[in-house]
Amino acid sequence: MITTTPNIIATCKQTRFHFLDDRPSREVDIQGLNITVHSPQQSSTETTEKKPKAKSKSKADGLELISNADLKLKAGVHYGLVGRNGSGKSTILRALAEKLIPGVPYSTRIAILQQTDAEVEDNKNHEIDSLTESLKEPGSISTSQKTALEQVSSCDTMRTEVQRKISLLSNSVEQDDPLAPVLTIRKLRHKQLMEQLFLAQKNASIRSGARGLQARKELKSIENRVASSTELLQQDTASIDAQTLQSDTQAAIDMLQDLQSQYETMKAIDVEKQARKILLGLGFNEDMLSRPFMTLSGGWRMRCMLAGILIQEPDIMILDEPTNFLDLLGVIWLENYLKQMRQSGPGTTLVLVSHDRAFINAVCEEIIILRDQALTYFKGNLAAYEEHFEFQKLYWGRMKEAQEKQIAHMEATIRETTKIGKKTGDDNKLRMAKSRQKKIDDRMGIQVSATGGHFKLNRDHVGYHETRRAAIEVPKDEKGVAISLPDAPDLRFPGPLISIENVAFRYQRTKPVVLNDISLTIHLGDRVGIMGLNGCGKSTLLQLLTGEFTVPSSGKVTRHPRLKIGYYAQNSVGDLQKEGLADQTLTALSYILRDANGQLNEGEARGLLSSLGLPGRVASDVPIFRLSGGQLVRLALAKILRNLPHLLVLDEITTHLDFHTVTALASSLSTFSGAILIVSHDRFLVRAVVEGKRDVDAPLDDDFEAESDGDSQDDSETPRRRTVYVLKGGKLVEQSDGVNQFEKSLEKRVVKMLAS
């Protein structure tokens, strides 16, 4: 099996105050953080080939994501981590969760929900997990047999571990065999020592000098204890003397009593009730709660994983795109749940990555910006940050413009004064010109202090040898890669693109009807949005429209004879990932050329990919399986756009995009000359593209075509038809107030769910 998970190397500044703390902490304060990613092939090459200076080159050989940054998380604060696709957000979160960053206490409980359901086994737990399997009590339920509710309830690891140990010790004490408590206590002690050994190995690997020497001594001591414990586990039971038998049995009884008193304090919270409440909020029904966890689809298993994290109440909770597999009801429920968790008092620290603007604005109180390999912080939500950014851009832009005019005037005066001084031999004029030039060189630049007062070099630049002021820098926009869509070709004769009349569909005769009596007509230029809860049949309807299913169960589907459809399916990114893994030499450029089958030359293919944000070497040199989710979305778009479609059918296209790219996509879609049918839970995208509304919290590009701007400059042309539907009970229900109407109805349901 080929490993595709990149290797992460994290380093940071460590002083004598940074040590491996055995106390959990909700705070993180790491200075001088550097994170570099190495590909698995590169790492394996480095291990097999001996390089004399591999250590010094390791940083340069990999892709550096973070350079000399400060990672600071305050206890109980909800952070939103924002940055462009491919900037390394998921990698940083993984490094934090796996405690690859030196200085993060290993006893701190960190729970992470990653974007993909990757079953990657961590090496540090291999021996511990195998020992845990041997300690399982008879009759225990394996993961494959657990129901969804049992799987989530078992994610409360602290309680589950205490219960497991109590069960093991109770069974051993109640047995007639006097050796049972001895063997059990020895296994439990050995497991604890193995955990200490792992921590000691990590500690020794990140220490140097005197601290490194001490860490290696501690490691040697624990290794000796593990060796002694291993001998005890392998000891012949017949050689155990009576004194050892009595002391170990008493130790087992004492541990059992301690664990039972600890468990009594945990029983105040009904874990199963809480798990049920969370799962119902995330979209499960009562029937699904009793289904085996392993029989659920990937999306529902991800919901279970999210519920398992919410039920743990860890010290630090990391949610990487938690809304990807949720419908709008689940998004609004999770939004309100996290807000309640924040308002209940200083508790779990949350780090959130999401492309949903409304979700980030509602949940997060501070923003972490990943940009140019650095981390900057802003106190406020995303909307406040963008407003502040625009203000700073305007403020510093005006200051720089005024100073440039001042400098231009002074330089003109210097030239005139110098000319007169040389012509008349007036030394005073020359000295005056030199003095003004020195002022330009030394005193131009930032004129205000950090507090907004007048800048003084000896006060605001103290400790620096540089005598000149820093130049004024105007903040630059951090926007997603520009996306350009080709115009739809001429149809040559008029008529609707697609028309469905009284369509009904069911997968089997014995199965219930999925779609019932649906009628919809789409003309060139129309904007149609379809929203609804998961499982209501939205994707089924799109498959009927696009011809994935040949015929409906009843009704009629009519398509324009010259119609070309560009269909972006929910699984488009997953299909590309599978193809990339199957052929690891396949790049975006070679994929498009292969798909075009001679209809595009290399220059045309490069132009198409570049217009969608995959330029140059990214298109030709980076294998598909190495592309980020956002880049794969662009590649999938390139595939459907190369045929110049008249109708774009987009099913949850924002799932893998950052919000900058979603904004760029919305602006580009608004000017598309063809028709657009969008199925999405993203409220911003549907409002912008379908309803043509500008969002005050999401500044769109200047070329965004809003409904208020007028869809056509020519009054003789028919204006765009803009309609939002909700698919419910197999029927399309038009929303007179658009997204707001659907959103308000779901908010009422969420209030009732959280109150129950």
UniProtKB/TrEMBL annotation:
One of its GO terms (molecular function) is ATP binding. Residues 700-716 have a biased composition (Acidic residues). It comes from the Eukaryota. Gene3D superfamilies: P-loop containing nucleotide triphosphate hydrolases. PROSITE patterns: ABC_TRANSPORTER_1, ABC_TRANSPORTER_2. Pfam families: ABC_tran, ABC_tran_Xtn. Transmembrane segments: none annotated. Residues 35-61, 700-721 are annotated as: Disordered. Signal peptide: none annotated. This is ABC ATPase, putative. The lineage of its organism: Eukaryota, Fungi, Dikarya, Ascomycota, Pezizomycotina.
